[in-house]
Amino acid sequence: MIRSMEEFTSSFRAARCVSTPLVAVRTADPASTAHFIIENLKKGQNLSPLLGWDVVRGLYAIGRDSGEELARVLGERQAATVGPVDALLVSQQLGEDGLLLYSNALRFWSDPGVMQGIWDLRDSFKATGRMLVLLAAPGATLPQELGQDVLILDEPLPSTTHLEQIVRETFNAAKLDEPEHPVIVKAVDALIGLAAFPAEQALAISLVKRHLDTEDLWERKRQIVEQTPGLSVWRGGETFEDIGGVENVKSFLRAVLAGVDPPRVVVFIDEIEKAFAGTGTDLSGVKTEMTGTILTYMQDREADGIVFVGPAGAAKSAAAKATGSTAGIPTIAFDLPAMESSLVGASTERLRTALQIIDAVSQGRMLFVATCNSIASLPPELRRRFTLGTFFFDLPTAEERETIWEIYLKKYNVSGDLPNDEGWTGAEIKECCRKAHRLGITLLQAARYIVPVSRSAAEQIKALRQMASGKFISASTPGVYQYQENTPVPRRRIMRDLDGPLTVMPPSNSEA
User: Fold this and answer.
1) CA distance 406 to 418
2) Class of 5-154 per CATH?
């Protein structure tokens, strides 16, 4: 696994030295990669014939010294008339140690003619030290017929050192003073995970009035990341302080965020059991292959993962999203179904691309947080990858509901008698306050438009509690979750002084 440009350079040079004939380079910036390869070939070597091909220009020379070679190879043909198959046939005429850069190869290598043309070059190129370099997008998958004959090299995204250089060069090009170290650190942190060219563009645009707008830089990075199918950056700013209850899991996550090698990115997978449904049973094999890819990725990176199980509305997603904001790191929503494609192999390519971006943004330190309403259908091998444990989110207790009411009464600026909230989730308390605020009605009136999930899905919740009892960690209290029946609590009254704190009034004799 190549993690730095130094490793990539060493691998490419090694392949060149042993006359590897067929190489596929997966890169997010093909133009930069081509320039990088050319510059490295020139260092310490006699200049070899270098040609390139793309679907618009056809065959073309790279560098002045390759013009004669291009003319000799083309003969009577026009460069622009050389198609994807013809380019491979013509390259048979390349001189010893020659190299052909083949652009956007993934768009053509599944064609039978191109596939055969690539394979036909193997032995003749090996014997004469020539090389075919297939430039492809990150995550691209070779046809099965070529998988054993083509060496795959993944060019990593720019390192922090490279990005620091880009920051300094951009400031210099804008005729600005050398940025101070804290400014460079903030800029690099916002750029990490982007290819060199989009990083340069985002940085240049974010230089406003001779100063760097870091927040604007982060927003442009979010927009670029979200161009990848299945990835989106959570923009909410909620922290653990905005979530009532679930103190045990919040305490644990705070320890993770403050521990050794803390995560740089939170990867949020919502309803993971649905995302991986069909693994091992889908006739196309797509979902099974994608599951295997993410399993391998998490194992190779030794990625930390944690699973939240519980009924809908029990603050699982809220806690997951708040983890990143609490630590001041990005939260990337990971939507596996959105990565699926009708084209063979495209789904896995998209998944690999997404994982490469996550790897780059996190610098190898990511925390996967998955929510799950029912864990029974989750593949056991996937559950084992979430090594930090499985936490069960039960319906909030009376004390937790008290805290949740205070949070949302203050947020929506409402007060008055509370409805009978026995069995309510935090999401239902929030919705009650929101309705009261938006519709200009009392909390008791708003409660008439809410059916708690504890009633509508009572049997499912009971089964979920029994399944979790003694097996999963409690999200609310220390230790393993133990199922207990809740004792109904009479209605309270919360009075809110607009200029003072919330006051919880005990129930009256008639209510008790």
Assistant:
1) 11
2) alpha beta
